[in-house]
Structure prediction request, 505 residues.
Amino acid sequence: MEGLLDNVGLGLATAVQPVNLLYCFFGVLLGTAIGVMPGIGALATMSLLIPFTFYLDPATALVMLAGIYYGSSYGGSTASILLNLPGQPNSAVTCLDGYPMGQQGRAGVALFGTAIASFIGGSIGIILLMILSPVLVSVAGQFRQPEYFSLAVMALVVASAITPGRLVKGLAMVVVGIILGLVGTDLYTGAQRFTFGSIALMDGVTVATIAMGLFGVTEVITSIGKTDVNAMYRKIRFRSMIPTRDDVRRSWAPILRASGIGAFFGALPGSGSTISTFIAYAIEKRVSKEPWRFGKGAIEGVVAPEAANNAGDQTAFLPTLALGIPGTVNMALILGVMIMHGVQPGPRLMAEQPALFWGLIMSFWVGNLMLLILNIPLIGIWVRILAVPYHLLYPAILMFVCVGVFTDRYAPFDVFTVLVLGAVGYAMRLLDFPVAPLLLGFVLGPMMEEHFRRAMIISRGSFSIFVERPLSAAFLGLTVLMLAWAIWSGKRAARRSAVEAPIAE
Prediction:
């Protein structure tokens, strides 16, 4: 414990240096702004700033880039709640209940709740990163191809069970998402899959295209013809942003549970915080005594994914710093910056450069506190976005979406794809097909295939490798239990409806 306190003191002394405080503030402010604006991601912003970091001390450069990274998660929820448009892919789940809360005139409460949940989740992630780093490193170090495949299967089943009563539709959307994720060139054989001879599809479809098309453009199409819907938001004052006692009662347990989920998945290389948001949402819906509230403006459906998201963003630095394995694309970029600055990440980093390692961790505390102070006063400004007339607001949204998608790969075909997906998303909404399982299937499908093929090579074609390893077997066992529970819950709900129908008549 004494050694931990010494490291905390060393890190705090580094984090509160005036130059580090200045660049931390710049990073979190810029991160929040690009998170709020749909179509502009943290990855593109950090990429543009890489040349600028050459003139900074390595610790200062990492503090700024990290602030952009986790600051974008704070801002990403704003567009999800106000416009049903996830500013970041890991904010997609927030749309499910955040946007309905906004439609009910509770946008201020939703934004206030996300700010508090993000701060608590981030704080818990930092605490676990500091205290339990040896345990998390040992657990993550045991993961091999079978464990990653089994974990992906479990996550996909959980995604299908997000909407009980629509299990078949959820599984169908997972399959569609996996197929979309497999579009492109096979890395092992070079074969073209689902490209239909199109050169533009050889590189596949990006997650930004999927998220922006199925959420943002779909909302624009749905909102065509609406007039003066935003009048309810023009009278929002700070008092209306304060959550009720019932909101607080419903929120604290989901925040704590989701923070633990996010911290765990963030520490696993290759998983990232997006998975944890889906799982946290599904668990809260499963344990709730009123699951029918979800999707209609449940505060738990907003704070849980946001807490998981920000907790995962903090612990995602653990495999990057301690193992030299980036958990996400953003972490890969930060890893590259470290190497360019002559900093070698890995198990020896903590011992060889403790000031940098612990200074970066303590800057997370400073940055999260800055974000909390920044975001709550700015809630009123974000809510006033809805006062903009629809005929001015949605063309601007389409512009941001198209610019953001185009600048991702500078491919005009992606702009066409996002518009087509918007029409598909509108049809899915009319037919009551859930979008969230499709998005998770798209994210996890390629990873699941890659680890499955590697596991098959290691085991020489034997499927027993997935049950011989304890962690993999445990994940598969939980998957079977979750699937059985979802089927049983659906049948029970159908029987209950059949019994209640004659009574209602």
